[in-house]
């Protein structure tokens, strides 16, 4: 939808009329570098662009990143967890990886779903004990990410063909 919005504002020349627009939240798919560049070109610094990330299994949006000042030639990070959510970057063995090292994103906290209705085996496979915090559960997203020096998390892709 963000890309459709940007194409529309470019085609109609209406970006200058959006003076009351203060913030746009992008969620639901990876935020392409071209969209960040277009957004900045058309709406400038007066309108904030926030990249949100999260799967349906965990309260839909679990992280946020303010794209202000982002190098528009690289992917927008998915950022940091929202309140009451923990994000872990783990190896296949379940240990945390060093900063900058790719791993699988796991989500824990109060926004986590109970599991998949009528799919006990899949629930057991994807929702596992939170071994990092030592209590509760965490969800294996299947998303490959890495933690940046800033503490933000950068999305790299999928571990499967989903």
TrEMBL record:
Signal sequence range: none
SUPFAM superfamilies, per the entry: Acetyl-CoA synthetase-like (SSF56801)
Annotated InterPro entries: AMP-dep_synth/lig_dom (IPR000873), ANL_N_sf (IPR042099)
Residue ranges of every copy of the AMP-dependent synthetase/ligase domain listed in the record: 3-117
UniProt key word Transmembrane: no
Pfam families: AMP-binding
Keywords: Phosphopantetheine, Phosphoprotein
Membrane spanning residue stretches: none
Domain of life: Bacteria
Protein name: Non-ribosomal peptide synthetase component F
Organism annotation: Streptomyces spectabilis
